Structures are given as structure tokens and as C-alpha cells.
Amino acid sequence: MFKEIPRIDIDEIVDKAFRNAKKKALSSKKNINEIVKEKESIRVTVAGETLAESLFKVVDRYPSFDRLPPFTRELIDIIADIDKLRHNLGALSFAINTINSVKIEYIKNIRRASSPQDASFLRKQCYGRYISILKQVEKNIKFLNNAREKLKNLPSINPDLYTIVIAGFPNVGKSSLLKALTNSEPEINSYPFTTKGINVSSFEYNKRKIQIVDTPGLLDRELSYRNPIELQAISALKYLAKLIVFVFDPTESCGYSMEDQMNLYNEISDRFIGIPFIKVLNKADLKEWGFKENIKGIEISAQEGANIDALKNNIQEILFNYFEEEVDYFEKDRN
């Protein structure tokens, strides 16, 4: 989406605009010596249109923020601040309109010029006005260029898919579980609000693609330790998650006690009210290390693949109920 937005360099687009204008004027079939005023009008027109088009490509290729899926909109807001994007895009739109107004004004003035020398002077004056307009929005262009760099690598998480989010403290085996559930290596994406990659993979259920996301750096420690951007990113996950698989490590070899893990589970479940949770007790292959069984959940070994089928069956039951409700809803809507 954002990779298609061009980067703006004022010197580059000015050079392109004036060069195109000169070529267009020289290509006139009429005798240049006799139509200096016509030549200068052409140069003013082509230069103005080239500059306006360069700015318009940026404004036009930004999506309508209000029409984006809530998760994507939240991400863009975290990364680049939608209000600031709107403000700076508005400044470019104003610049486009101003360039077009100046273009029309100078075409009229050149046509009324009393001599070829006056026409050339007016064309140069118009060029100066164009550059002045661009200088006025230089800060806005710089902001949008920076925003583009941040947004162009927006991770390939599809907010329209049914999404399972894996949560739990670091080192409890979330990445191993992701691989075990999907039988594939996850795609690792970068987010600007976490130093760790977001792992994304998928599997098919009844010809539907089910997306699984592991979010290291987000749902892996107490919310009280979060900064505002991380909290907003966690809130964005509310729009994405249809099911949360919370992974416990009852051996506590991850470095966190079961009490701490349960506290994190309670915090996250309180934040994601209305979303179903599955409790997974991982590292069942390491029971000789000590395996605290004071929490009910599905015992598995993601590393060894033990009891993964039981977890998949549980997930499929939830998927079945979800999609059956979806079908019932649409059938009632038709009636």
C-alpha cells in the first residue's frame, strides 16, 4: 500500500518540471521567434502541471484512513500519527491548488504582455512563485517522506482473516508452538513499536486461511511496564484477535514463576474481554524438571509435537462454532 507512494525531492521535481516545460515549448510547430508569448505560456503551464502532479501522486496514493480496517488504522496511527498525516497531506493539497491558481494567473498575464521581454520576465516570476510555494510546504514534504519510510514496510498481517494470537512470557515456547500448529517457518515482520520481529504464519481450515500471530515484545510481560505506544499496539490487537492461545511454562524454566505467568494471563484476559482463550501448558516433555499442575489447560510439548493434535482439535471446535455463527447470521439477515 505505502510502497506505491512516491518520495518527494523538491529540487528533483522542480528540475523535472522546468525541463519538461522547456522541451514542450521548443516542440511547438510555430516559429518560436514569432510566438515568444505562446512559448512562455506553454512553459508556465507544463511546469505547473508537472509540479502539481508530483504532489498529487502522494496525496492520491494515501488510503482513506476512515475506510481502513480498525487494526490497520491503529497501526498507522501508532507509527505515523493519523492526525499529523492528515494535516500534512492537507498542506500538500493546498499547495496543489495554489500552484494551479498561480499557473492560471500567469498564463493570463503573459498573454496580455506588451512585449516578448515582458512575457519572459513573467514566466521567470511565475517560476519563482512555484518554488516559493514548494518551500512553504518543505516541512510537510519532509514529514510525509519520513512517514512513507516507516509505513512502506508495514507487516503483512491481513486484518480480514480469522486470527489466532499467541501470548505468554518469553521463552515459554511460543515460536515452537507456532511452527507446530502450522508445520511451516513463520514469516518475520518488523514493527516500529517493538524491537523484536512479529511472527506470522497460517493454516487452512475448511478452505479458509487461518492466520496465527506471535507477538514478542507485546503480550509477553505485565501491562504496568508498558509505554503508551506499546499499550496502543496492544489495544490494536483487540481488532485482530479472534482467539488467544496463552502459553504457560509449568517447569518455570523460562525464568518466570507460575504465579507471574497467571498474573499476566489475568491482565491480558481482562484487556481482551469477549475473546476466547485457550490455556496451553507447554514443555510437558520436561516434567522431570518439576511441572506445576495447579492450572487447568492442554498439556503439550511444542518442541516434541506431543499432544498438538488435542490442541488443534480444541482450536477447530472454536473455529467451527465461530464460522457456524457467521453463517447463521447471514442466513437470518437474508430472511
TrEMBL record:
<dbReference type="InterPro" id="IPR006073">
    <property type="entry name" value="GTP-bd"/>
</dbReference>
<dbReference type="InterPro" id="IPR010674">
    <property type="entry name" value="NOG1_Rossman_fold_dom"/>
</dbReference>
<protein>
    <recommendedName>
        <fullName>OBG-type G domain-containing protein</fullName>
    </recommendedName>
</protein>
<dbReference type="Pfam" id="PF06858">
    <property type="entry name" value="NOG1"/>
</dbReference>
<dbReference type="InterPro" id="IPR005225">
    <property type="entry name" value="Small_GTP-bd"/>
</dbReference>
<feature type="domain" description="OBG-type G">
    <location>
        <begin position="162"/>
        <end position="335"/>
    </location>
</feature>
<dbReference type="InterPro" id="IPR027417">
    <property type="entry name" value="P-loop_NTPase"/>
</dbReference>
<keyword id="KW-0547">Nucleotide-binding</keyword>
<dbReference type="InterPro" id="IPR031167">
    <property type="entry name" value="G_OBG"/>
</dbReference>
<dbReference type="InterPro" id="IPR041623">
    <property type="entry name" value="NOG1_N"/>
</dbReference>
<dbReference type="GO" id="GO:0005525">
    <property type="term" value="F:GTP binding"/>
</dbReference>
<dbReference type="Pfam" id="PF17835">
    <property type="entry name" value="NOG1_N"/>
</dbReference>
<keyword id="KW-0342">GTP-binding</keyword>
